[in-house]
Amino acid sequence: MNAFKSSIYWRLLVWFCVANLLVLFLGSFLTQRFIEYTTAVEINWTSLAQDADQVYESGGTPALATWAAQQRHEGIDVTLYENGRPLSPIRLSSSIQASLPAWLDAGHDILLQPRAGLYLSVQQITGSDGQARQLVALSRTHTRLRPQTRAKILLVVQLTLSLLFIGLVGWWVARSVARPVEALRHATRRMAAGELSTRVGRQGGMAHDELAQLAHDFDAMAERIEALVAHDRRVLQDLSHELRSPLARLHLILDLAQNSVDPAQAAAYFRQAESEIARLDRMTGEMLALSRLEGGIPGMSCENLDLIELARECLEQAELEAQARRIELRLSAPAAPVIVFGSAQLLERALDNLITNAIKFSVEGGQVELQVHEADGMAGLSVRDRGPGVPEAELESLFRPFFRGSNAARADGHGLGLAIVQRVAKIHGGELRATNRDGGGLDVHLSLPLAPADAMDASSD
Known about the structure:
By secondary structure, the protein is an alpha+beta fold.
């Protein structure tokens, strides 16, 4: 998986960028406020004026210039004024120079802030020679301290804020990731303990990321497993229930054959036992087929099939059984092929079950009709008989496994044939329904989607 396409990656990247930006701006702000505080509090302007006057009186202008350079290195632009003229060079803005003569003549000390982050001090001082002088000093908030000290303060502030914000962001991101992971972990443990109804659901902080997809996939897997296990349990219960009667009959038949004195009578019992064994074998095979269908068939081979041709082949296979009961099989279909896309093996089994079921419940000398047609993008196949039909209250249960209606006593069976047909229809995206015919009999209608036009064209080529 490409990490750049991961929503978790982008979420981490965005939040760490936000943390770094907060550290940058907040760190600079706090450092500036700290230096402003130290500038305003720590500078002793009166002491600074006295130092400047002593340096000037002892060494003159060159000594004052050297001392001013040292102060400038520590963040203060400073000089002495005498008779309105600076005794050493100082850089002043035009606005300050315009107001400076009035401040020098004010006759008292002045400390003001011409603009944010800049302090101006004018200190009146009288030298030992009796000459009046004035100290003019400028201190900028970011130059009050030595550059090395200033860099250390900034580094400490940045490092502290980085640890704080990265720790907070890391905690939040870890919490948002750990919560759904922990939910998945608990759900997995509960599933392993046998709680198949366990679901992760939607957890906070996992709206659309990979963890949300993982939780959704887990829930889908859990739902599928629960359905399969429930189905297997139901199949096992149904099978155990349905096998009980034929096994009891088989046990009784074998007991009678064992205790029979007449060999001919014993042979009859053994033939009856063989019939029961064959019945059990058919029931087991149908149950396994239904179980595979309801459990899904991975890798099912599908192709374009002509439903008319498939129906014709199934009728030919059922001809012997129909002739044994003198039942006429009829096929009504359009001239053009009706193409569906599906598994030939499954659809053939479904049609065989429908035809066999219709023959089984038809009266001797009756008729079974197959009608194939297409309409509204669907292919339809109707199997109609003239048997007893099904009570209206039982029609909805007709496709349920092992269901045998009140008319089932008229024919052998296990109640699985139509259940298999319905499952085949669902696998192919179709549906199965049954209605009673006017005048008696049952009409079972199987509808399937027609194959796409491009697929049919490719098949014809």
